[in-house]
Task: structure prediction
Amino acid sequence: MIVGTTTEETPIIFTGSWIDGTGAATSSYAAYLRQVQGENDDNIRLEILGDSLQAMGAFFVSFGEYLRGEDVYAVANGLQSLGAGIEAIAGNYELANRTEARLLALIGSSIQALGSNFFAVTVTKELLQDEKAD
Result:
């Protein structure tokens, strides 16, 4: 996850970036605990919390970018938000021992990665255009 995927900071984008970053750190810590302690409901809940925070933070960033007229960045962050939200749902399915959990986690992480890559390609393209203009 790319934290602070914005072109310019506004209060809503700044807040969203911090929430997103907090969620990413929480998810990473939960993944570490799952490696060290093994699978248990508390670690799954912690990962759900992290994914939920990432979804909420990326949504704020997406909304902030939309308000600024940065539609491409709004879509990229919107995809990241959607993907993280689906991952949180997958965690709840995992707690309920539902077979769909792995498929939802795969779909969610893929959508989240698609949003991150879309953002990276857009920024790279803009940087290359700026270099050509100079």
User: Anything to note?
Assistant: The chain has a mean pLDDT of 91. The helical segments are 11-37, 41-67, 71-95, 101-133. The chain is about 85% helix and 0% strand.
